[in-house]
Amino acid sequence: MTPTTQSNWFTQTSDALYDRHYYTINNKRFDDYDQLRAYWFQTPTTRQPVLVHDVDPPKLKSNGFK
């Protein structure tokens, strides 16, 4: 079954880019949300949980620069 835009499988909580997260499923890391979704749909068991991890922001040096 292919989800449609009317599907309630995915919910969108923000229009901002998802570049502040990375995702893991089955011990595989994905930095791109679209690649994660493609993998999720291709796996035989689609009820695998997806973990969303925050990317730690780079720490600033004492002078305020990266």
Provide an overview of this structure.
With 66 residues, the protein is of the alpha+beta class. It has a domain at 21-54. Helices cover 15% and strands 18% of the residues. It has one helix and three strands, in the order ββαβ. A three-stranded antiparallel sheet has the order 2-1-3, covered by helices on one side. It starts with 20 loop residues before the first strand and ends in a 12-residue tail after the last strand.
Features:
66 residues; extended; alpha+beta
Describe how the helices and strands are arranged.
Blueprint: E1 21-25, E2 28-30, H1 33-42, E3 51-54
Antiparallel strand pairs: 1-2, 1-3
As an assembly, this protein is single chain
Strand order of the largest sheet: 2-1-3
Q: Could you report the average pLDDT, rounded to the nearest whole number? A: 75
- In the predicted model, the low-confidence regions spanning at least 5 consecutive residues are none
N-to-C CA distance: 47 Å
Query: Strand pairing plus helix content: what structural class?
Result: alpha+beta
Brief overview, please?
The protein has about 70 residues and is of the alpha+beta class.
